[in-house]
Amino acid sequence: MLKKIIIGTMLSSIAFAGINSTYKESGIYETLDKLDNNKLIEKLVLHDQKKLPINVDSYTNIISIEDSNNSITYNIKISQTDLETAMGQKVEFNQAFGQKLGTFSFKQIRSQLCTTNSSIYVIERGISYNYIYTYDNGDQIIDFSIAIEDCKDLNKIKE
Known about the structure:
Layout: H1 2-25, H2 37-49, E1 54-55, E2 60-68, E3 71-78, H3 80-87, H4 95-113, H5 117-124, E4 128-135, E5 140-146, H6 148-151
Parallel strand pairs: 3-4
Antiparallel strand pairs: 1-2, 2-3, 4-5
Helix pairs in contact: 1-4
């Protein structure tokens, strides 16, 4: 069952990278160098908010994207009912589940963000990406941030 959840989480990380890759195609980068970080974050968040809610898979939705303290925050909801339907069995949402999901999500999303030129541009400016996963009842599963320090070992960030 965890393998199926991991596959869904991989799709989530691909969707996040897809959000970031659209910045360049939309022409948004033409003016970004002229903006301070607060304005840059505001512009990127407003750009992505137009797509909300984003259905990542049958049980994962990005429900909001916010700017806060030199970061972009993604609020992600996981539906237990939809997850159980997809898995074909009862899923116990507990701390162990949250930690496994969080660890795997961090690694997958970090891999995407730290190797995608559009997000590297943002990260190199000192802006971090925050991810907050909650169950559909509002209880938080896990949260994590990805910042420049998290990308240095992937050899894409300038020292």
